[in-house]
Amino acid sequence: MKINAYAVSEPKGKLKPYSYELGKVGSEQVDIKVHYCGICHSDLSMINNDWGLTSYPIVPGHEIVGEVVAAGEAVKNVKVGDKVGLGWFSASCMSCQECMEGEHHLCSQNESTIVGRHGGFADYVRGHWSWAIPLPEAIDLSKAGPLLCGGITVFNPIILAGVKPTDTVGVIGIGGLGHMAIKFLKHWGCEVVAFSSNPDKKKHILNMGATRVVNSKSPEELEVIKGKINFILNTTNVTLDWNSYLSLLAPKGKLYTVGAVLEPMAIPAFSLIGGEKLVGGSPLGSPALTKTMLDFCVRHNIYPTVEEFPMEKVNEAMKHLEDGRARFRIVLKN
Ligand SMILES: [Zn+2]
Ligand SMILES: [Zn+2]
Fold first, then answer.
1. Ligand 1: distance of its center to the CA of 60 in Å?
2. Which partner from 18, 184, 245, 266 sits 20 to 30 angstroms from 119, CA to CA?
3. Separation of 131 CA from ligand 2 center, angstroms?
4. Using one digit for the tens of pLDDT, what is the confidence trace for 149-168?
5. How far is the CA of 196 from the centre of ligand 2 (A)?
6. Closest to 60 in 3D by CA, of 303, 327, 311
C-alpha cells in the first residue's frame, strides 16, 4: 500500500510531498483514510526535534479523523466503513498492568503516532484498534480532530482532579489547549477564570464561556482572586511564577500542568503544606475516557474553534501556528 504524505527531513525543515509503502495490515491493526488532521504544538516540537525523539523523515499529524478502510482479522471494536479518530497514541501492549486496568495511555510500551513511525499529514494512517476511537454518529468531523489530542489532554485532568460544577477554576494560556479547557469547564458548570496577557484575545475568551479574564502580569488583578480557585490547569510550556499561582488556590486546591515545561518547576514546599495543596500532571487520557469525552462534546455541542487549511497548504498552516496567529486550532482537510 502506497501512502502519500508530507514529511520533514531535518529540524526546522519545510514539509515536502513524501510517499512510503506500508505492508499488509497487521491482524490487530486498522488503516484509516484521513479526512481531517489537526495541527498540535507537539507536531512542531517533533519537527524541530525539541524532545530528542524525532527520526527523519517525519510525517507529523496526530489529531486524525477518518474512515476505516482495512482491518486485520483480530480487530475488535471497529470495522471497515466506521468513522474513527486517532490521536497521540497508535498502539499499546494490551497486557501490562496499566493496559489491563484500562489506562492504556500509561502503558510503558506505548507507540506514538509520530514517534518512529508516520502520522496523519497523509492520505492514510495505520494504528492498533485500541486507539482507533469510534466517533459518535452526530459528531462534526471537520472540527473533531483536535479533540483526539488537545481535547483529551485537558479533559483528563478535569476528571483526575475531581472538579465539581460548583468549583471556581483557572486556565493558564488560552491557545489550542486552553480554549478547549474553557469550553469543557464552562459546560461542567464551573466559574472559569482565564489567565491571559493578550488583550486581543479577551473578547474571544469571554465568548468561549470564561467568566472573567485575568491579566496574569497584573498583581492587582491577581490579588482579587487569591485563595479562591479550586483547580488551575496550565497549558503553556514556559516557566511561570508557580508560587504566585499556588497562592491563588483555595485550601485543598490542585494545580495541574499539561504544558511540557522543560525546566524544573520551582515549587516551595510551604506553599503546598499550609493549604493541603497538590501539584500534578497527566498525559492525554485512556481510549475509554476519550470516547466519553467525544459523547460529552456531542451532547453539549463542544468543539474547538478551528481554522481550516487544505492539506496541500500545510506549510502555510504551520507558519500560521509558529507565528502565534492560530485562532485557536488549525485543521488540515484532505
Ligand atoms: Zn498533540
Ligand atoms: Zn501496556
1. 10
2. 184
3. 12
4. 999 999 999 999 999 999 99
5. 38
6. 311
